[in-house]
Specification:
Number of helices: 7
Helix content: over 70%
Order of helices and strands: HHHHHHH
Strand content: under 5%
Number of strands: 0
Structural class: mainly alpha
Largest sheet: none
Distance between the termini: 14 Å
Shape: rod-shaped
């Protein structure tokens, strides 16, 4: 029994796309890491960037394994590819369910990390305070967790015009920066879930194609052994 060439090259094409998507994820995540400019606060708030780098590398490796397994008709590589996709699919499904069902966990997670590493602000190094001032200018907020009261002396980066949103009567921003960080995460949550859903669909197709090809190669080998 011959291997279906259509399935074989569809799987190869899928894995090529899979490998390219891994390259894109890796490139974007590295860009996000660099664009943080070493800010200690955003590094703690967005630990997922490091996870994205790891995911990008894993996807690139899996895409390469899948391409080799499809072209060389190697059952061992195809089985390894299938198991890896299944594990990633289960983890992705679990993460998507948690993210969609309980978005408050994102807010609690960010707050807990910032409280653990940067509270109270008065005890922090000057480099942390400088990073917070940069955030205050960019996000138009003041303080890290409790608003202006985090500062013993309110810096100029907290000052605002009366026409600015969240500007208090004392002409300083009233919103703590951690809330602004959470708002940014929530704004992008739908996009992240959409990307995760698209990847999950690709994973399903990859698993189906790889298992079909795995079975066909097994039947071909069995027929070859019988005839010899």
């Amino acid at each position: 029994m011959a291997v279906n060439k259509c399935i074989k090259y569809l799987l190869f094409f899928f894995n090529l796309l899979f490998w390219i998507s891994g390259c894109i994820i890796l490139g974007v995540s590295i860009y996000l890491k660099v664009s943080q400019k070493g800010n200690q606060i955003t590094n703690e708030s967005f630990p997922g960037v490091d996870l994205l780098i790891a995911i990008g590398v894993i996807i690139m490796v899996l895409g390469f394994l899948g391409c080799c397994g499809a072209i060389r008709e190697n059952r061992c590589l195809l089985l390894l590819f299938f198991i890896s996709l299944l594990i990633i699919f289960i983890l992705l499904l679990a993460a998507g369910i948690v993210g969609a069902v309980d978005e408050n966990k994102v807010k609690d997670f960010v707050k807990e990390r910032l409280e653990k590493n940067f509270s109270p602000l008065s005890d922090q190094k000057q480099s942390v305070k400088d990073d917070l001032e940069k955030l205050q200018r960019e996000l138009k907020c003041c303080g890290l967790l409790n608003g202006p009261s985090d500062w013993t002396r309110i810096p100029d980066s907290c000052r605002c015009n009366a026409t600015d949103a969240d500007c208090s009567s004392s002409r300083v921003y009233s919103t703590p920066c951690y809330e602004k960080i959470v708002q940014l995460l929530e704004q992008h949550m739908e996009v992240v879930l959409g990307i995760a859903f698209a990847i999950a669909i690709l994973l399903i197709f990859g698993m189906v194609f790889s298992m079909i090809l795995y079975i066909q190669i097994g039947r071909k080998d069995a027929v070859t052994t019988t005839t010899t």
